[in-house]
Input
Amino acid sequence: IKELTLTKPEKWDRIWRLVSYDIPNNLKKERDWFRHTLRQLGFRKIQESLWVHPFECKEEIAIIAQNLSVSPYIIVMATNHLPNQSKMEKYFNLNE
Output
């Protein structure tokens, strides 16, 4: 898991990837590690337990969730619009 990275494509496809989780308290250690890994991969927290990234990440999230045995508690979604989208575009340097 520590060696996972997300590859930035040449051109952004204008799709946001959202990762949501509801990992129970009895798996607090795993939840903390999952959150830490999202930060390490460059995700940005937009709400409690809801993180965003502009690039494809479904396989990486599946690997992390499987290794931590928290797959049933993780949802990966995609959307073409976010509230405060311009703020996120600036954060991820997508205005190029």
